[in-house]
Amino acid sequence: MALLKSAHIIFSLFIWYEFDYFFAIASFLVGFIAIGIVRSKLRNSAIPKTQQEYPYNDEAIAKWYLARRVCFERANH
Predict the structure, then answer these.
(1) Residue 66 to residues 9, 16, 38: CA-CA distances in angstroms?
(2) Which contiguous run of DSSP H or E holds residue 72?
(3) Distance of CA 6 to the CA centre of its chain
């Protein structure tokens, strides 16, 4: 869960340390957008359509994803 929340921050701090604050700000914004896209893709692929009207945090999205991908795949094999 921490990776979905703080990956773009850690990456931006590394870019700031290595290069410049301008590149760090740009990488932060791009990372923020990329993590948002990943979260929405996980949410849309794991949570049923009837349940998507409710707001979910990162932990709930991960629980739905693991339940759908890991548990159902093991039950089918």
Answers:
(1) 25, 34, 15
(2) helix 72-76
(3) 9
What is the rounded distance in angstroms from the CA atom of residue 65 to the CA atom of residue 70? 8
Q: Say if CB 50 and CB 35 are below 8 A apart.
A: no
At 59, list the tokens.
């932990």
Query: In the block, which residue shows the tokens 């921490």?
Result: 2
Q: Which pTM value belongs to this model? A: 0.64
Tell me how far apart the alpha carbons of residues 38 and 42 are, in angstroms, rounded to a whole number: 6
Helices then strands, each counted (H, E), the chain = 4, 0
What is the per-residue pLDDT across 18-50, written as a single tens digit (0 to 9) for each?
888 898 888 888 888 888 888 888 887 777 777
Domain boundaries, the chain: 2-76
